[in-house]
Design goal:
Distance between the termini: 21 Å
Strand content: under 5%
Structural class: mainly alpha
Number of domains: 1
Order of helices and strands: HHHHHHH
Helix content: 55-70%
Radius of gyration: 18 Å
Number of strands: 0
Number of helices: 7
Largest sheet: none
Shape: globular
């Protein structure tokens, strides 16, 4: 397993962001958790089966776990990218399905949707982690030529 500065930078930025978001959600009020749950139900209808407090706690713990996984150096970058890809797909789907977040007939954000549209960068990081080759892999290919 090689080390890539670019992968480390991507993992540090996204992992710290998600970890911080999860820690911040530890103190959600019931009303805040209910609001997040309503958004999540547009993409994952099963979220309605939990109470708002259970949903908020589960979301917080999940984000803390994901952020920690991404930041853990011995976890392969592709695995971190896969986990981040699943998470960011949910965020992007939530953005696309939330009323008033996109301009009519477009994926461009409205002023209200800009804060959610930024989640596309997490999807981009996931793709980069999944498909980025380390220097060692590239050197091996060059040596075989």
């Amino acid at each position: 397993m090689g080390f890539s500065i670019s992968n480390a930078a991507l993992r540090l930025v996204s992992g710290a962001f998600i970890l911080n978001a999860g820690i911040g959600k530890l103190s959600l009020t019931s009303d805040q958790a209910a609001g997040l749950q309503t958004s999540a139900q547009r993409v994952i209808p099963q979220a309605a089966k939990l109470s708002a407090d259970q949903f908020g706690r589960s979301l917080s713990v999940s984000e803390i776990a994901l952020g920690s996984l991404i930041l853990t150096p011995f976890i392969p970058s592709r695995l971190a990218g896969l986990a981040l890809g699943v998470f960011s797909t949910g965020l992007v789907a939530t953005y696309l399905k939330a009323p008033g977040m996109t301009a009519p007939g477009s994926i461009r954000p409205t002023p209200e949707g800009t804060s959610m549209a930024k989640d596309f960068w997490l999807a981009g990081i996931a793709v980069a982690l999944l498909f980025n080759r380390t220097c060692r892999t590239q050197k091996r290919k060059e040596q075989k030529k």
